[in-house]
Specification:
three-stranded mixed sheet, alpha+beta, 4 helices, 25% strand, two-stranded antiparallel ribbon
């Protein structure tokens, strides 16, 4: 989903939440991700990052983390 000059893996505009699934490419350029996250935060978005392995091996924990972020955004 487009957000400014970036594309989000998953986006919920109403809760201002972005979920990113990170593979190997994110490991080699962490400064690029940090700059992108700062820009998205300046636009009012919260960004959650999960490794692809987390989604494949422990999807329940990923879902709980997203639920918690949504609850914190709208208590």
């Amino acid at each position: 989903m487009p957000v400014g000059p970036y594309f989000a893996d998953f986006l919920c505009r109403s809760h201002r939440l972005i979920v990113e699934l990170d593979g190997f490419s994110h490991d080699v350029q962490p400064e690029k991700d940090a700059s992108r996250d700062r820009h998205l935060a300046d636009l009012g978005f919260r960004v959650l990052h999960f490794d692809n392995a987390d989604v494949l091996n422990d999807v329940e924990s990923v879902v709980r983390a997203i639920e918690l972020a949504l609850a914190q955004a709208h208590p």
